[in-house]
Structures are given as C-alpha cells and as structure tokens.
C-alpha cells in the first residue's frame, strides 16, 4: 500500500520525510539525547540530560526511519541510521542490557541499580520502543538493530524465567512490542513474556505511589479493568498490547475487557478532536464526561496510542467505529500537534485557549521545536511514516478500505492481482473513486467504510447507482466484477453538541465538516475577542477560502456578546445579567483545528457558545 | 471581642476547641510529625515522615492553641503546649536554626545543607509559621515560644546583614509573620527584613524550575505583579505580607499592586464559594475565568489565606467588598472543608463531584482525618480560633462591624465604654440586633456592613426606621446616641449566574441565600442521578427543614433530564440531541455547600443546569 504524494495524507508523509524526521534527528543531537548514549562509552562528557527515558526518543525516530525506508527506499537517513545503530551496539552490555540512564556514568540523579524501580524507571518502556524500531527496520531490510533488540528481549525473557515472575513496567509499551517481535521472528518466548506481563499487571505489584495505582493501571487485573483510567498513554499502550495478546491467543475475556476499555474511552472520555486525557495533574483520563476544553491535556501521544490501539481493535472486529475514531484523531488532535512546516509541536492539545493564558512546561501556547520530555515529536514521525499501513486490510474474501486518502492498494494474491487506485482529495471533500487496475477473483468483495458522520451517501458502481446498504458494521460492500466504484460522502458543515454531562461545553456547539473539526482563532477576528463571539444556530454555514493546509475554512453567522467586567460581574442574579447584550451581527470564520496556531498566537476555541433564543448571549 | 457560644460562629469556635484542636494534636502524634522533631534530639527513631515542611503543621496548631487560650483562658492544652515548646527549644540550634527536616538525622531524602534550596526548602515558611504561633501565644500570656521564634528571626536578620541580601523563600509566609513580629516586639529589624524579602522577590532569584517562575511569584517584582497567579496559597500569603508592609511603610505603589491582585483574584478567579486556585497540576490560579467546578482545586488553605489577606485590605481601606469576600469564603469554602464533627477535612473543595469520581491524593471524595500534606487542618484550627478578631474594628471616630455573628464587641476606650451586644442567628437569617451596653462618646459612629448580596435592607434605630444610606464603601452609619440598632438583611433564595466567560458553568445557576451557597447532593435525590437534575428558573424557591448545621435547606422546582448514552451519544448533531427529553417535574432539595458530604458519599453539584425555554434539557 502506498499513499499518493499528491493526496492529503501523502503530502503529510512527504512533510514528515523532508521536515519532521530531519528536524528530529537534529534535535536529538542538540538536546543531548544522543550524547546520553555516547557518554556511556566515553564518547561524550557532561551529565545525562532530559528525562531518564530519553533513549526512547532515539528508538522512536529509528522506527520512523524504518517505516520511511520501507515506504520510499530512501537512503537519506543511512548515515544517521548506521551511526546510531552502531552506537546502540557499542552501548549495549554483554547481557543485552541497554539503557543509557541506568548504564550512566553516575552523574546527578542517575540511579544505577537496574530493574530496581520498575514503577518509574521506564527500562522496559525504552526496550519496547527499541524493539518496535528494530522490527520496522528489519522489515525495511535493515536488520542490524534487530540483533541488538533481541539481545535485550532475551534478557527480559531470561529474567522472567530465572525469577519466576516477569518484570512489569510502570509504563506499558513492551507488551505490544514483544508481540510484534514474536510475529516478526516467530519466537514464542516473546509472546509468552508479553502474556506474563499482562497477566501480572494490575495486582499492586508496582507498589504504593502517591499518584495511586490507577496511574500505572496497577489497580485491577486487565480482565477486571473495563474503564479507561489513569495515565492516558500508559492505558492506551497497554490496551494495544492486550489486544495483540487476544489476537494471538484468543482468550475472549481479554477482548471483553478491551471492548469495555474502548467504549468508555470513546463514548465517555474522548474530546471531539479525538484527543484523550483531560487531566494535567497526572496526564490522565478524567471521570466520564470530564472533558474541559481549556484544561484538555490531550497529549499527542495519547491520540497516537489510540490510533494504534483502535487499529488493533479493527483488526479483531471490522467495525467502522474503530476506523472512525482513528480518522477523528488523525485529522484533528494529531494533525494539530504539528506545525505547517513540520518542525514544531504541541504536546498538549487544548480545545480552548484564553487571552492571557499562562503556559505550563508541556502546554505552551504555541508549538515548540522540542520538549524536555520529547515523547511526542518522534511519535508523530513514526505514526505518519507508517500511515499507509492503516489504509486497508484483507480477509479471506474481502478487501476493506478503512482510511480514505489518495492511495494505491495492492490486491493480495489470494484475492486477485494488481491494485486498487483510490483517487480522492479527502478530507477536503468526500468524493472517493476506487479504480481497479487488475483483477479480483470471483467471490471477492470490496468493503468501504461509511463513516458515522456521513448521513447521506451514494455509491456508484461502474457509473450505475448502487442500492448496497451500509452494514451494521458501518461498511458497504461491492462484489467483484466492478471496474470503478465511487463513494460520495457529502460533507455539509455541521454543528455538533456534546452530551449534556459534558458540563464544560454546555450551551456551545462545535463546527465540523466530515471528519474535520473546526475552531475560531483570534487572527480571523481582529476587532472582536474570540471569547465574545457567539454562533447563530439558524444562520448559513458556508465554505470559505481554503486554509493553508488545503482544507476549506467555514463562514458562519454569529453575533458579538458584550459581557461586563469589574466588580460584581463575576456572579450576578438571574435576570440581572443583562450586562451581556448582543451587539452586532458578525460573520465568524472558522479554520480547521488541525491548522490552528500557525499564525500569530492568540485565543482559540473549538466549542463556541450559541445565541440563545432570547436576545442576550 | 468575643463570639457568643450560642451563635453560629461561636458554636464553630467551640467545635474547634473541643474537636478540631484535640484531634489535630493526636494526628500530629500519630502521623509522626512530632517524632520528626524528637528524632533530631535522639528522642525518636525512624525516618522523617511526611513532607519536609511538616514542622509548620505543629506551628500552626500551636498558633491555634494561642488564639484559643486568649479566647477562653483554657488550660486544656497546657500539657501539649509545654511539651511541644520544650521540644522546640531542645531542637533549636544555638544559632537559632530550627527545622527538623534540615536538622534531620540523614535519613532517606533528607537534604542537609541549610538555606541551600530556598526554592523548595520551606525553611522560612516554617519559620514564619513558628513566628505567628509565638506571637499568638505571647499575646495569650505564654511567652516561651516567642523567645525561640525570635532566635530564629534573629538568625534570618543576621544572615541578610552578613550576605547583603535576604533569603527569599519559594513559599511566602515569613513576610507577614515578620511584620507581625515587629508589631508585637517593636523590633524594627523584623520589619526591615520583611521589606527586603518583598523587594527582592520576583526577580528570578529563586532560579529556574520546571514549574516556571509564576509558581513562586518570582516572575515579576511585586509592584509589577498585578494579577493573582501561580500557586494560590503562595500568592495569597505573599499578598498578606505585602499589604502588611504597605500598612507599616505607606508606599502606595505597593497598595496599587495589591488592589490589582485583589481585583483579579476576586473579580476573575474566585469560585462562587469563595474558593481560589483552579489547577490541580501546580495548585495554582488559572487564567481569568478558568473556574471549572469539577476540577476546582480550591485548596482550603487558599481560602484561609484569602480571609487573612482581605482582612488586611479591609484594614487599609474600609470597603465592604473585602469583608464580603471574607464571609463568602468563611461560610462556604472554608466551612465545607470541615466535617460536622470537626475531625475530618477536605484539602481540595470542588464544586462538582461526579458519580464514579476517581480520587487523587489531596482530592478525596470524602473528608479524611488527616493528610500527608497536612497544611489545611491546623490552618482551619488557627483561623477559627481567631475568628472573633475579624468581627469589628475601630478608627478614630468609628466602630465598624464587618462580620455578623452573635458577639460581644468591646467599645475601645477612645470611643466610649462598655460593649455592643450583637444578637443574630446570622447566617441562618439576616436579622442583626446591636444593643449598646455602655456609652459611646458624642461624635462616635457605628458603621455596619451591608453586604453586596443584600438588595433590600432596613435599618431601625431605637425602634425608628432610619433613612441612613449605604455609603459607597458599603457601610451604613449610625451616630452615637442610640441604644439599639437593628439591621435587617432579607435573605431570599437567589439564583445566581456566572460571567459568560466562566465557560464551565454556562447554562447553569447556583442557589444562594445571603452569603450561603447551596448544592445538590445525591443523598436527597435517591431515585434520580444528580447529574440529570435541572432547575426551573420560574419555579418557587422555598425554605425546607434546617440542615444539621442549622442553616435551612432549599426546595426548588426542577425537572429530570434523561440523556442517552452509548455509541454516538457523546457528540451529536444540533437538533438531533433530542435524546435528552425532560421527563417528570421534580422538587429539588438543596443543602448548604458548607454541609455537603456529611452523609453517604455521592455526586454533588453547586452549579445546576437550567431548563431551557424549550422542552429539552
């Protein structure tokens, strides 16, 4: 499968290859992250810099390079790749251990005892990312890192065997990595270890911590943990691993827990942008419906993890809801985390920025080139480089297309020959042409996802309107024999409201169009504070000029509220709050949330208060 | 001044004396906080327990005991007092240093170098609390601790002189304490040191920290810092100290900054309960209007600090807004932090608790007997023991009454003889009788605060209606010559809305009555989830049975919403969200927020969605 470089997703992949990956290579150097490894072998001086799990940023970028080589065969990164893999090989101990912080030279704050602080140490987390990088590179024909990663994995297997219990990391990640390593190598011990880790989790083994056991998903065994909770990235990476384990071993009690996890995460704890994790305090999921737009922590890595996990759920059970969630996150919270030039990043992705916002370390008001905790940038790089893998799947008799973008989808040999050419500007519009360049065996089906947001849609097969229905799984099916299929998903501009228990956005609407969520930015409303804009529910919603990312802007009918301030204005008696009359009508401009913050920094909001039927705002 | 033990505030003081203080004494023992001191002198084993600033909890309780002895002359605490002061004396080093963590025996995590980590060390913070305790005890005739505290204060003075710069603590508190020590002792050096600390602050001297300089109020000199920001308790304690310095030195540029601080804090960043500090992440003020009810951190100590600071502002400028703020915090966020039996505490005081709420260390769903960071419980104890001091003040010609409660207010000698007897069940009702038992000199005035919430009020002087007007400062004045004054502040049940920029409570109202804020609790609505209750704006609002605290409950007309859940219910198209029809009418019971959580733990909310003019909720 290959995304067309002229398409929306393909352009993003090219930006990733030409900007995000090279930028990340530079930042790993400038931030001292590579020096952390070099100092272990005496090739750099100074103290360890960054968080103690900084090695993982190197691994994630190597994984991105692996996907990128597989995608285009590029040699652009060969020098960096060779040097970095050689460095890792040099740093690795004879027993397979590799973690520059724990191998460190004893500088300030460096713990030295290995595997002694599994709750916070992140040793297995880093190992997991190295394993994923190694598999991606190996699949691209670069097998050096796999040798190194297997030495580390083998160390973990030996430790579990010798001790009778597996190491369980405070930050899940090794679980899904080990299953992938098993799939790639066929070595059963890796799958067994992943299973041991998953079975051992949630039994308090990580010990007491002031953040409580939920933070580490150590509060309940995975089968009993049917609510997404605690640190969002940890929960979602764990869920990916548990779903992988189900896929390999088929224990349905695991799947049942995962369905509960998925439904609470997506039906009660997901922002309209697809982001997850509302609490800054511990980067965690909040309570059900606790989804404040302004204090959305909404870490980029959580959205990436959700794409990876929802994909695994989709592989288990082809239900469009999983792919709907993936595209929601991809086109909104993930795309928004990256600047238009591909070299600056949000870590936290709020849905509302007030004037005079006071920033925090991981929550700046504009994208920055790197972070001391730099987990997100290389995570974007590895996801985007691998995007084509999420486009389609095949089963025994069906080729299913899940994500829409201009692409070429190879027909697997058991279903036919050649490939499908997908032509679309999606998500700029919802017109999707699928042209068969080859042949499908009789009895083969093509299934196309009809997103839940698509109310009216039409399917044409070889120019003839089809009466195919959307199945209960959200897919529409065409039997082999066609030459060309056209799925039209009309994208009117919609106004969306949240469930009434999402208290923080009561009385507000969000503008959406297809999978794309919009926001208002101060840059488009020079004379009126964004905070004072109101939307009319009964006004026209028109498409405006395209934003620089290519998606259209939206123009909507609104009004300007004029709230009072000063003494007594904060709390007033009902009926005496007429201090907020509506002044003039105004045309409001909304831009894709994915594009926000690429101009002058200023207030932004996704959820916009509506004009009440009365005349006050 | 003395609060009547039969009155609302007097009963609270008795509860404090008979329950909160003895309980806190026990908890200081059980928690190991006293042992932290004993181990310095070899009289206890084990590691330091609790946070490194735990000494301050001892000091705050000693201060409470000082106020309590002054109030009632009690000897109940003599044994504890003598033993604890003797312990402090024994622990204190010859140079005056006293901080059990830094003097510690080198156990785990104990830093040993004194004054080396001013940003996080809390050494001056602890010293400040010891100084305040010493002054309170000295005023009650127990001078032992003052000798000890002055040795510590003298050490700080010497260090500043020797080094040419004062120590500036990451946590303000010493500033206001040193001014008080100057007032009590007349020793100018203490005032000078407080001034030096305040002048040195806000210039980055605390050094870089991942929480940023705002957290420590180190981002701007105090005169340039006109917005309440950063860690709420730190900001508010600092403001108390700066206001004290203005009071003593008269530099109006300090006062101007304090007015800016006060107005941003109270006009943009105050919860309707009087609580402050919305962010859990760093216990800080949020942006203007960032006041989420569910994630209100709303630390008890911040409300206490606000009472102390607003009192100082009131002393500078008799404006009812300062006393209004004090009573709002006192009767709501502070009273709510304490259980009805006086022995359990909230640290965080949210305005909304959802079903299935996941707790955090300082934010449990029910009050707990103590905290690892136990700053709040003894802070309540010292505030409540000192409450009578906030009731009234006198100037050259006026006796002003600020807080209403049954009380006896001594007439100062320069204004007359005898005392005023205040008879009132306030805040159960707003009927305030002031009877003069003595004589006021001719030309003397009695000023009574008319709270901003009081729309219609009447004043009767010796039975005759008065035509006195509420002055621009919010006080009504009666000239000497009266025998009895009756101020009636009618307390209808009100519905309050928040400023439209307080996005989190859009479409909601809060029920208030006089200074008392109400909430809905699950315990009163067994059959209907609190989350689904709606209030009708046009229904009757009646008083119901008194709550156990003595304040009436409120019964209001409401309706039950029936939101959908499950797939697709989280975000729906406008007009298609009719999944939340109103079912039945219901009578809603509201209880004083101060009393919530004294029954079975369950959902609670202060801000209640209103029934829209249409028929859906």
From TrEMBL, chains A, B:
Residues 10-388 form the Non-reducing end beta-L-arabinofuranosidase-like GH127 catalytic domain. The keyword Hydrolase applies. Keywords: Hydrolase. Residues 493-609 form the Non-reducing end beta-L-arabinofuranosidase-like GH127 C-terminal domain. SUPFAM superfamilies: Six-hairpin glycosidases. The keyword Lipoprotein does not apply. GO terms for biological process: carbohydrate metabolic process. Residues 399-481 form the Non-reducing end beta-L-arabinofuranosidase-like GH127 middle domain. Pfam families: Beta-AFase-like_GH127_cat (PF07944), Glyco_hydro127C (PF20737), Glyco_hydro127M (PF20736). GO terms for molecular function: hydrolase activity. PANTHER family: DUF1680 DOMAIN PROTEIN (AFU_ORTHOLOGUE AFUA_1G08910). This is Glycoside hydrolase family 127 protein. It comes from Sanguibacter suaedae.
